[in-house]
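Hi W.,

Here's what went into the run:
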Amino acid sequence: MDTPIAATYSLPEPLPLDSGAVLHGVTIAYQTSGTLNESRSNAILICHALTGDQYVTGTSPLTGKPGWWSGVVGAGKAIDTNKYFVICSNVLGSCLGSTGSGSINPATGTPYGLDFPTITIADMVRAQERLVTEHLGITKMLAVVGGSMGGMQVLQWAVSFPEKTRAVLALACSYRHTAQNIAFHEVGRQAIMADPDWRQGRYFEHGVRPTKGLAVARMTAHVTYMSARALQQKFGRNLQDRSAVSYGFDADFQVESYLRYQGSSFVERFDANSYLYMTRAVDYFDLSGDYGGILTRAFSPLPRYCIISLSSDWLFPPAEHKAIVKALNGIAANVSYVEIDTDRGHDAFLMDVPQLHAMIARYLDGSAAQFGIVS
Amino acid sequence: MDTPIAATYSLPEPLPLDSGAVLHGVTIAYQTSGTLNESRSNAILICHALTGDQYVTGTSPLTGKPGWWSGVVGAGKAIDTNKYFVICSNVLGSCLGSTGSGSINPATGTPYGLDFPTITIADMVRAQERLVTEHLGITKMLAVVGGSMGGMQVLQWAVSFPEKTRAVLALACSYRHTAQNIAFHEVGRQAIMADPDWRQGRYFEHGVRPTKGLAVARMTAHVTYMSARALQQKFGRNLQDRSAVSYGFDADFQVESYLRYQGSSFVERFDANSYLYMTRAVDYFDLSGDYGGILTRAFSPLPRYCIISLSSDWLFPPAEHKAIVKALNGIAANVSYVEIDTDRGHDAFLMDVPQLHAMIARYLDGSAAQFGIVS
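Here's what came out:
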């Protein structure tokens, strides 16, 4: 039970997308941990962030390192795999096992590249629902949980499939991407597309990869994942392996060296076109969009909602979360909201923040108790 | 008197730099407006920001548009050229008339490129002091005024040449660049250097320019110049010339179109290597650096200090300014501090913000009155 199981599911039916396109031959890569109980009621789906993957716990075969949320998910952890059956799937359009722009286009026999249709958060959730219902045979989950882009998927689940889960926990996210956030994504995309090795998205045909552009995109994004205070506390104006500035363009400062490392290590594990698709999905996310801009109308009264924000998260500030709570109050939903006090910025949702972990554990265990779910 | 005068000054003596290098044949391009009074006491030096120029008022010959601070500087304006003799010079290392990396290296007869020495804020001020004292024959100015990188120069004037000015007004700046700000600059530099047309800084020899990289650098920086709220109010999620998203990578959103325009128009007027040098000068700025990190020790008791912050400026937040005021209080300096309430972010210092303009006018006119300076 301690070792998660990685698998793939090939959807037998085509998947219709928000764009109007229909995808054939979709594969979803996923991981499960823990044991599904007899009544199939103890499942928790975890949704990953922009460049995340299905390896939420255990050892990631991609990196050889612990899964991205192994501090939260595992035996005896906040999301306890001794109690719950935990599912995490690589989102549609990513590059880490599920179908995406690097997959073979059945119509041409070559990778899609930019012929891959644009994916939305709702499309990702649609594919997840197939996996959960059709393949895993789960008709009602205990909870759907996620942060950042994962939190957007959580909210989308509540809107698209409210009957399929008893609870949702959305963390460090928003119900719609703001202008500033679209702007930062656009900078990243322009950096990728400015790289001549991008080759209009057909780089794989030329044996090259737009690593420089992708690294710049990641560096920009990474700055937004940390708070100004966290950067100041961690690096300040400390110099990197030198006692004085070089009077040049070397990485004199630790923060420069750190950022360059973030860029160069990212390109090892992520695909440039998929980065375009993932950022676009997030930009397009506006849960109120189909409801005349009135978010309240989007929601159904699910049994339980939990919304968690991080005080120093400037990518998805607390105010964005309060707007969700306000909308949920408009349908008298059972919603709890907490703002976790942390200096560490957006990425704190991935870090060891005991208050956050305790909050997640209490919410899920409380929900399980309320609904009489036993492992 | 209404038409500003543009000129250049070639320093007769070499200029020693913080890096240890010595620059020969330095030219400083500058503009003056108004009339120097008989006692040569009504001069105000205005210091420009990162990519600014000497054309602070009147019509810029570079753009054909009004000078960058013509809302503040001019006849009857907050900095009234009917009363004051206003000087503004293009900083050393820029590309708009003063000596920079695009200038001819006397040692080789070809442009410097990256052989140009790294410039600091103190070096810029050193060159300005030569212009003001040596060339214009002004031994004591009424004030030195500037915002952003211009504000850094103002603070540097107070430290390097406290006897040369009666007052300083530093706006929307910091006494040292923070880790977050260095990080954003580094992203911009990496974007430029990632552009194959940069050619290790020798692009001019190849008849190309790294416009794509420079545009990405500018786009990143531009996002930091506006507040999240200003971007949301101005653009929100409004679409650009369309009624629905394209499900693709066009500039669907107004904010994307706006940013792309900011990038493409910037490359028309600014040089990529100079952008590297300007950002580096700002990164290196730490007024407390030579004083064991104790800012108070850097300052002398100038007659009058004025520090102004902008409430929604997240590039140089009010807290950065309060640290300057605190340090000045440590020498019992005559300092006034005000935080201007604005939603418009860092760039508000360049905009029509009446409260700000009134504050600048009162401070300068009050200083002139206190010191018995007549025009």
